[in-house]
Amino acid sequence: THQPPCLLLWGRHDTFFELDEILAYSRALDTLEIHVFESGHFLLETHAPECADLIARFLGEVEAGAFR
Question: Do residues 40 and 11 make contact, with C-beta atoms less than 8 angstroms apart?
């Protein structure tokens, strides 16, 4: 019943996790925000600026109470 805010950043070509596994979070969390990048398992090595921007915005929204 608890729906914490959740941000999921994922590399589409991750060899350790399938897309179906990642999308399973969306069945459990109504508050899920998901972003899929053209990258592999080490997403921050290829998309650090984009991820940092998304994380900063998400944390700002959580702090402002946007998910209550």
Answer: yes
**Can you tell me the distance from the alpha carbon of 6 to that of 18, in angstroms, rounded to the nearest whole number?**
19
Over residues 32-51, the pLDDT tens digits come to 999 999 999 999 999 999 99
The C-alpha atoms of residue 25 and residue 12 are separated, in whole angstroms, by: 15
pTM of the model: 0.85
Beta-bridge mates of residue 7: 33
Spatial separation of the C-alpha atoms in residues 52 and 38, rounded to whole Å: 16
Task: At 3, list the tokens.
Answer: 């729906």
Secondary structure of 1-29 in HEC code, one letter for each residue: CCCCCEEEEEECCCCCCCHHHHHHHHHHC
